[in-house]
Structure formats: structure tokens, C-alpha cells
Amino acid sequence: MKQSADIEHFLRLSPVMPVVTITDAALAADLARALVRGGIRVIEVTLRTPAALRAIETIARAVPEISVGAGTVLSIADLHAATAAGAAFAISPGATGTLLTAGASGQIPYLPAVATASELMAGLAAGYRCFKFFPAGAAGGIAMLNALGGPFPDARFCPTGGITQASVKSYLDLPNVLCAGGSWLTPADALAMKDWAAIEALAAKAAASRTGASR
């Protein structure tokens, strides 16, 4: 499926995809630039605040060096809104049959999420190859991803949820993991204080997390 190949491109841009909840769209461009300076080339902005869509618009327009995607896509309306805002891709914390169908034929690549083997089978049957694994820590973490690798060798994942800089390398070392998602690169206090140097430093550490092994 073309969508799977397209989303894989974005998942390979950086070893860590920052997962950001933005309450003030005016901070979006500076935040994105700090991540770029740290070596990060992709960002997920969650649709959890009224400022999210404007933040996506701002980043897409002002910071083309980073690919911005919309997270927390829960409905077809969210998918359409993310596309209209200029998101390069869309991500859900789960999946529904409706979203799997819409995502397969949408204007932007779509990454559904799974937490179980049954959900993974449904996604694979719908033509997907790449998935968000969420919530990674609560759903079994590295052990679960290792277990899924046996019966589903072609599936690839972006685990998100409960991952830290200290644990991310263990996830990235797995052969079925393309990247990991995390919110630790953009802590709320650093955002509030506009401490772009701190975010750049966190981004640089995350960008250096990849082992270099092929996926």
C-alpha cells in the first residue's frame, strides 16, 4: 500500500519523534527551530488543544526543515482538519475500521496505533505495514514488541508512551522499530520559559540515539 511506504519515509527521518502538546501557537515556530538545530527532522503535534491546528499551520509554513504531523487523530473530521492545516501525516492513538479505510485513501499518510496482536492483525489486513505501538510501556514495551516480531515479521513500529531518553536506545535496537515517540524532548516547563537552548540540547541527545543498524 502506497500509504505505508509514505508514512515509513517520515518514521525514518529521526530516531525519535517529539510528541508535543502546544497551548500557544505563537511558540510553535521557535520550538520547531530548536528541534531542527538539535538534529530532529520530524514532529507530532497532538490535536489536544485549540492551538494545535494553528501550530501545525505555522510549523508547516515557517519551518520547512521539519516535517510536522498531526497526532491524536480520533475521527475522520480530525483527519480532514489535519490535512487542511498542512500536516504532512496523521497519527492516531488507536484505530477504527472507519479510520483505517479513510487513512488508506487519504491525502496524507496515516499511522494507526495498536496495542495487541488482534489489533495488529486488523491493521495488516487493511493493508498497513507501519503502526504506532501505544501505550508502549503499559502495553508490554520491549518484550511485547519482541513477541510481535515472531508472527508478524513484516510489521514496523513507532513505540510511544512511557519511553525516556534512558530507555529509547533499547527500543531502537529492535529490528521492527523504525523510531520512537516521546514527549521528553519538549518539557512543559521549558516551553513555558521559552528555553529553546534546553530543548535543542534534549533534541541533540535524542537525535544521537540511533544505533545505525538498518531497518
> Average pLDDT across residues?
95
Report, as a whole number of angstroms, the end-to-end distance: 18 Å
Which superfamily, in CATH terms, is the homologous superfamily?
Aldolase class I
* Residues in helices, as a percent range: 40-55%
Number of structural units classed as domains: 1
What is the name of the CATH class? Alpha Beta
Low-confidence stretches: none
The share of residues in extended strands comes to 15-25%
Largest sheet: 6 strands, parallel
Radius of gyration: 16 Å
Overall shape: it is globular
Per DSSP E runs of 2 or more residues, the count of β-strands stands at 9
Question: What does it look like?
Answer:
This protein has 215 residues and is of the alpha/beta class. Helices cover 43% and strands 15% of the residues. It has a six-stranded parallel beta sheet, sandwiched between helices. Helix 2 (28-37) packs across helix 10. It starts with a helix and ends in an 8-residue tail after the last helix. The mean pLDDT is 95.
Topology (elements, then pairings):
Layout: H1 2-11, E1 16-20, H2 28-37, E2 42-46, H3 52-62, E3 67-71, H4 76-85, E4 89-91, H5 97-104, E5 110-111, E6 113-114, H6 117-125, E7 130-133, H7 141-149, E8 156-159, H8 165-172, E9 180-182, H9 188-192, H10 196-207
Parallel strand pairs: 1-2, 1-9, 2-3, 3-4, 4-5, 6-7, 7-8
